[in-house]
Give the backbone structure.
Amino acid sequence: MAQSDSLARRLMDPEPAYRQAPSNVEAEQALLGALLVNNDAFWRVSDFLEPGHFHEGLHQRIYEIVTSLVRAGKSATPVTIKTFLPQDLDLGGMTTPQYLARLAAEATTVINAEDYGRSIYDLAIRRSLIGIGEELVNEAFDAGVDATPRDQIEQAERRLFALAETGRYDGGFQPFAQALATAVDMAAAAYKRDGGLSGVATGLTDLDRLMGGLQASDLIILAGRPAMGKTSLVTNIAYNVASAYQGELQPDGRMKTVNGGVVGFFSLEMSAEQLATRIIAEQASISSSKIRRGDILESDFFKLTEAVAEMQRVPLFIDETGGLSIAQLAARARRLKRSKGLDLMVVDYLQLLSGSAKKGDNRVQEMTEITTGMKALAKELNVPIIALSQLSRQVETREDKRPQLSDLRESGSIEQDADVVLFVFREEYYVKNKKPREGTPEFDQWMSEMENVAGKAEVIIGKQRHGPTGSVLLQFEAEFTRFGNLAQLDHLPDQM
């Protein structure tokens, strides 16, 4: 009743003396009238306009009813919707049926419906901005002892990003029907995408088969001992995703990814130049050490320039800043998604990030804060995040060097927060280091063992929330830091 009283006052006194949040009741009336006269107008605004974007409570309810009827294939007119509204409202001297009739009588045309819808949407965003600003001011005045300015900036930036991406920042419950629609849309996108994957394809066929691609909002931990090829593998995946990128312009002016993706790569250890050199070596099939030394032939240089020309169009963005905190990384990721788009994020590597550095925190508590923040960021941005991680030295003390979940450093938080844990293992590295003296029986046995493991790498799925665990064999060319699919696959049995 209070909402209808507010609308009645505005109808009788359109210019109150006090300052109000921006709104346009006439635009709302004009759009609703167009919808009631011609239901086809609904499809001009349905992809961006929601009931919550209307300022007046009665208008929100009318639009909600119109939406339900039109989507159900029924007719939405003043006659059909009046039964769903209170009949005893006083709307500036009019009853509910009279008000609906007036909306229809003074309706705008279907052609203008989208313009009115855009105006309503923009004003709703401005009201949300005002709300965020008011909360920011209040929090700055009433900040607690433990609240730092950086925390408040981070919180405000998160709200602004959510508002920019979705048009709302309040979160809360959503109808199950909306979740079902999202699931169906995901299935439809998987049907259209190369390989029929629900997630982003890594370009490694057997890994995609076990994982269904890289799933949005998943935190994926890629771990391994030094020299196993963690950075090489994640670099290969990042480039495969970026090089397969295809976008489609939407009616609202945004670019929607239909294949591949835009990749943000946080290289906390290596420089952008070193990372680029690795990718050039992989794509041009030229040793990275030769590229760095300039020890290449003219034919190699031609291949290199061809590869670079092709790579320049790839939407792969590198941030080489070292010593980032989880809050700084999140802020940069949000800005990248807003300005360029973001479909996959890579962090190399997890232990080089820092937390909030609160007094009394030990490294395990700090790592818990980091992994929890990474998982929350993956959900917020709705993209998969691949974070590299080190393994403890206890791997080296075992006869079987294959890593396990317990080998993760600060494993409690990493294992708990991760949706997927992958391990990279190259038996060739360990066998090569056990080379016996030539001419001995042990040498012949060693040569036979080397032939079996040479050029092969194993990716072990140690944990996967939404699928099976197991192991995949890949080809690895150390000279070019390149992982690829094996011509003849030797897939180990899945472990359920």
Summary: The two ends are 57 Å apart (CA to CA). Residues 489-493 have pLDDT under 50 and may be disordered.
